[in-house]
């Protein structure tokens, strides 16, 4: 079986990422502000299910991820959720949803810009009329900064995490390779190396808006790090909210 991104590091992913409390609060504020705090919720690229945990009291949960290893981790946390291994460019769940989430830099890791249209179309087809689609993206300013920065290193427990980002020489939007290495204890005297390379691109805000406009309505975008401020040229992480048609 062909491996998917994150298969190699799935079992140590949560340790590497660290605490998600601030992310949960930010997302809860978005849902509350948009009046969508119950119903059916689908998270695309749900990973280990860490964000879905926040909403198990109010929503019927579905998570989808391309990585079988990530889905296995999510099942341990969310035995009552519907968890599906599938590609978000071509998925079909047979259901519709009040809320669909695509968070962090997950869409950035779809390395062809034309394929973003496929993701948006699939999401729109699964979103109920007036349902809420929340999209979080790394913007070009962030990839520019990461590509020029030294390697990032941190520890979590006994795990050691290193990420190096290198710009890819290719035409089109800015693209980078994220080289992730996790050294995790295999025995009292030895460490195991878990390694993964993630490819990522970033598109300009106007380009993303145009793509979303083909599938959704009432598109708003904010600078994640500046709270309620609109996104701008220096925005590193943008959050787009859209409504389903109909």
From TrEMBL:
Domain Methyltransferase per the UniProt entry, residue ranges: 42-131
Which Pfam families does this UniProt record tie to the protein?
Methyltransf_25
Q: What CDD domains does the record point to?
A: AdoMet_MTases (cd02440)
User: Which terms in the Gene Ontology molecular function aspect does this entry carry?
Assistant: transferase activity
Keyword line: Transferase
Coiled coil ranges: none
Q: Which domain of life is it from?
A: Bacteria
Under the heading PANTHER family, the entry gives: TRANS-ACONITATE 2-METHYLTRANSFERASE-RELATED (PTHR43861)
Q: What is this protein called?
A: Methyltransferase domain-containing protein
Species per Swiss-Prot/TrEMBL record: Inquilinus limosus
């Amino acid at each position: 079986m062909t491996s998917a991104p994150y298969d190699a590091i799935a079992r140590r992913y949560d340790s590497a990422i660290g605490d998600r409390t601030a992310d949960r609060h930010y997302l809860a504020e978005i849902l509350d502000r948009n009046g969508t705090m119950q119903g059916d919720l689908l998270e695309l690229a749900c990973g280990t299910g860490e964000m879905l945990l926040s909403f198990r009291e109010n929503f019927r949960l579905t998570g989808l991820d391309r990585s079988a290893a990530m889905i296995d981790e999510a099942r341990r946390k969310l035995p009552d959720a519907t968890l599906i291994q599938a590609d978000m460019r071509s998925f079909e769940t047979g259901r519709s949803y009040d809320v669909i989430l695509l968070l962090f830099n997950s869409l950035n890791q779809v390395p062809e810009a034309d394929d973003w249209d496929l993701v948006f179309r699939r999401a729109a087809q699964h979103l109920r009329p007036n349902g809420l689609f929340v999209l979080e993206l790394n913007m070009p300013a962030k990839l520019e900064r990461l590509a020029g920065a030294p390697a990032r290193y941190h520890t979590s427990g006994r795990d050691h995490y290193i990420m190096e980002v290198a710009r890819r020489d290719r035409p089109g939007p800015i693209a980078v390779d994220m080289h992730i290495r996790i050294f995790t204890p295999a025995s009292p005297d030895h460490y195991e190396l878990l390694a993964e390379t993630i490819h990522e691109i970033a598109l300009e805000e106007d380009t993303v808006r145009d793509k979303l406009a083909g599938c959704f309505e009432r598109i708003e975008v904010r600078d994640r790090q500046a709270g309620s401020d609109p996104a701008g040229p220096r925005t590193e992480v943008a959050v787009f909210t859209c409504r389903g048609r109909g």
